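EI: anyone free to look at a 627-residue chain?
SC: sure, send it
EI:
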Amino acid sequence: MYTEGTPIADTKAPSGPIENRWEQRRLGARLVNPANKRKLSVIVVGTGLAGASAAASLGELGYRVTSFCYQDSPRRAHSIAAQGGINAAKNYRNDGDSVRRLFQDTVKGGDFRSRESNVHRLAELSVRIIDQCVAQGVPFAREYGGLLDTRSFGGAQVSRTFYARGQTGQQLLLGAYQAMARQIAAGTVTSHPRTEMLDLVVHDGRARGVVVRDLVTGQVSAHTADAVVLATGGYGNVFHLSTNAKGCNTTAIWRAHRRGALFANPCFTQIHPTCIPISGEHQSKLTLMSESLRNDGRVWVPSVKDDPRPPNDIPEAERDYYLERMYPSFGNLVPRDIASRAAKNISDERKGVYLDFADAIARLGRDVVEARYGNLFEMYQRITGEDPYTAPMRIYPAVHYTMGGLWVDYDLRSTIPGLFVIGEANFSDHGANRLGASALMQGLADGYFVLPGTIGDYLVDGPFEAFTATTTEVEDRVAALLAVRGDRTAESFHRELGRLMWDECGMERDEAGLRKALDRIPELRAEFWRRVRVTGTGEQLNQELEKAGRVADFLELAELMCVDALHRTESCGGHFRSESQTPDGEALRDDEHFAYVAAWEYTGAEPVLHKERLDFEHVRPSTRSYK
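SC: here you go
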């Protein structure tokens, strides 16, 4: 399935006291003279929280920035879908929080498969992120006295999550977008919406640009710069049904992987425990119900198997509040991987999983619950036709986030010089499981603070020589997709792949299932190139063509995900091998053999595994318990 190559190491991470490492790295980085920054160009692909904040920050510093996104507008990036909040170690509640505690919670929540240096930096910067966003006018919720309000999220026993009702991602993105729009007006950032990256340009060993397709006219063009930043999000849509927007894809990072960027931990995917259940084959995506709802909502199942009664007719004595029973210390706010597995296992035995607000409404009043979660309740009612104020929400786990991504060092550099990867597109901070409300934190930390502090150390050697990039390979690939003229839609292949991945590489994996998937995926990929039918032409708006190109990349990524999952014969976080579990069904890590980052090299044949050893000096690996 694979061969093993030389180990890899993060050579940019400083040593010494962990509290001083980020400042030490910033002081050690070479600087670019302000006048010289105007001579240097940077391409940023993606305009979510990571991409928009990076473009705005780099433009503010004086670099010439070109921004690309496939959405109609930069402000329509998928970050707007993040609902519940953003973590920060402000300790406004005086409940014992600190940078150190956020660091420890994140390393433990990731099941000891993340880098300590990266996680501590993230915890440090969390405090500055809130100040930055407040200064931009982000309307965080406030207490009666005017102070910023917080709530709890999974994997923590403190209240550190700042929020803007149930639309935190949208409000944060508006803040980042207005900062980016200011730079567009100032002329330091040039924006190209409705433009999709289809390849990475590597020249003389450096990432020097991108090849893109205008989604309206179909024109393929190459754009060059002194450095390229990928901020294109995760690859959860490899499962077809996920909480991601339908357009979310892996093409940008997969094309970079094929050009030489190592792909790290692709099997680490996150299943969110509170999503609206699948209702039929007609669905193209699933809907997340924010983890914030578990602050006041209680999760339960009927005590009797296949209980036919409506949930409101089931008396309290016949309800099993299983998370509160199984994990009394954390209750409904255990980390997502644990809550998801518990929900699946218990719903396989019983009928229905419910998120109930009856107690909260009785305790707080409907007005308070509506003020906290009203837009989420409205969304649920519009989708299901059921009123969550009077009946429990129906929930079930669904694919949500990917902890894997392109390998980067402490400076956010990939293994291709000049290619930086930020936000969910990289693997760096969350290990095998992301704690809720930490995605927004990482995206903004990377874009506002880390990248602007490290990219200059690379760009100080620029500007690099000009050259003319070719678009031939991309044009040939587009033509090949159009030329098949088969009898199956790209959507039908995507649906089949997604079902296979969910069954064999989803919430629970085993060797037999993974080998079954690895037998079927190459067959499905070959069938795709024989039978896919793309209507229309390449010289126009053609969403079938867009979809076909993305599915083709998913069909390649899926195989690497299964190889990674098969080789890692342990359970950790979101990667649960049925052969590796404790007697009570919890994940069983193997720190002796698998305490490393699995960074995969693309060869066109068998992938090559490069291991980055993980060392723990400050949070000793232990059995992860939330009981």
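EI: The CA atoms of residues 205 and 552 lie 26 Å apart.
SC: 👍
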